[in-house]
Write a structure and sequence with these properties.
This protein has 380 residues and is an alpha/beta fold. The protein contains twelve helices and twelve strands. Helix 4 crosses helix 5 and helix 8 packs parallel to helix 9. The longest helix has 39 residues.
């Protein structure tokens, strides 16, 4: 057993292979077969090992340099952040280090590029839930910013956003903002989220000529304060003809008529407000020719007799009212019914009732009943 083991170990050594490379007669047939297999496997083995080793030898210093640069940058950012935190209360203002750390957290690494170049190329920035009380001037370094998340902070004022000409989405919900301001340069803004703040008046949005959606629901207001829409601001949005959605639910709103100055609106949500005048609602839906969705749930106006019939009849485009769809034939029936009722009030026009056979047929198709039942419905 010992001699066999020693012979097996010996034949694998380079000296053995060199000596017996030309004298295979000294090997047994079994060992000759194993030696042939070994040679075949060595000849078929890829010859890339040396190249890969050389490539790794060349690139390893650069990888180490990159790692060292990254570590040095991280240490410097940490020192700058510490200095800023010592000069200001923690989490009060956006800093350059905070922006870099946040961007790298979401997969954007600085790498070999300069920090200012990296910041100018940043398009999305998640600064939500940072306990911020001010935005700060350092955010202006992100001149190419498109989407900015600032919700869940303690911001009391919209400021330091003069650089935001390319900004398209701004998320400012769940702060303590009391006024809409600082929007003069946001000419590219498409979606603005201001839900759950302390705003009492919707204004200063005239420069946002591309604004498509405005979300300003559930403002924290005193019991005797009602949210208001500035007429000039709404007229400016109406001239731009880009605004499609307004959500102002839960704001103790009394008068929705300023929204009538924005005829491009397709969806309006005014649920859980204090709207009680049906005339104001009718004026709104009649002016918004593209309006397809209106939500007034939780408003006192729903208690007005035949509220739904009046709203459906006043709008030719409404498809959904308070969460329920509006059937086209229902609108036609209401319009025909109103015409017939008007004719009945004019003595000279009673004879023309015979020309309204289509109205009777539509009434029967809607399940109102036969002509006698419909006549009873008219007299009710």
């Amino acid at each position: 057993m010992t001699e066999t083991a020693d012979w097996t170990n010996l034949r694998t050594k380079p000296t053995f292979r060199l000596i017996f490379s030309s004298g295979k007669d000294f090997l047994t047939p079994e060992l000759k077969h194993e030696e042939d297999q070994r040679r075949v496997s060595e000849e078929s083995k890829p010859q890339d090992d040396d190249f890969e080793d050389m490539l790794a030898l060349i690139t390893s210093p650069f990888a180490q340099i990159e790692a060292d640069l990254h570590n040095a940058r991280q240490k410097r950012v940490a020192v700058e952040s510490q200095v800023q935190e010592e000069s200001h209360p923690k989490g009060t203002e956006i800093s350059k280090g905070m922006i870099i750390r946040t961007a790298e957290k979401y997969g954007n690494r600085v790498g070999y590029q300069a920090e200012d170049v990296f910041l100018s190329r940043t398009t999305h920035l998640h600064l939500n839930d940072k306990r911020l009380t001010r935005i700060g001037p350092d955010l202006a370094l992100c001149s190419g910013l498109r989407v900015l998340y600032l919700y869940g902070n303690s911001l009391s004022k919209i400021e330091d956003l003069d650089f935001g000409r390319r900004l398209t989405h701004l998320y400012l919900q769940d702060n303590i903002i009391s006024a809409i301001e600082g929007m003069e340069n946001m000419v590219s803004l498409k979606k603005l989220y201001l839900d759950r703040n302390r705003i009492q008046r919707v204004e200063n949005l005239g420069a946002c000529r591309r604004l498509e959606e405005l979300h300003i629901s559930q403002q924290t207001l005193p019991a005797d304060v009602h949210l208001e829409f500035n007429q000039e601001c709404m007229e400016a949005l109406g001239e731009h003809a880009s605004c499609r959605v307004i959500n102002a639910s839960g704001n103790q709103l009394l008068d929705p008529t300023p929204l009538a100055a924005v005829p491009s609106l397709t969806s309006i949500s005014l649920s859980n407000n204090a709207v009680s005048d049906i005339k104001r609602v009718l004026a709104l839906v009649s002016c918004c020719a593209e309006l397809s969705t209106l939500n007034m749930k939780g408003c006192p106006v729903l208690n007005v007799p035949k509220y739904r019939d009046q709203v459906v009849r006043a709008s030719h485009s409404l498809q959904e009212l308070d969460g329920d769809s509006v059937a086209p034939n229902h609108r036609e029936f209401l319009i025909g019914f109103e015409k017939t009722k008007t004719m009945r009030r004019q003595p000279r026009a009673r004879a023309k009732l015979e020309d309204t056979v289509d109205v009777w047929e539509k009434a029967e198709n809607l399940g109102v009943g036969k002509s006698s039942n419909y006549q009873a419905y008219l007299n009710s």
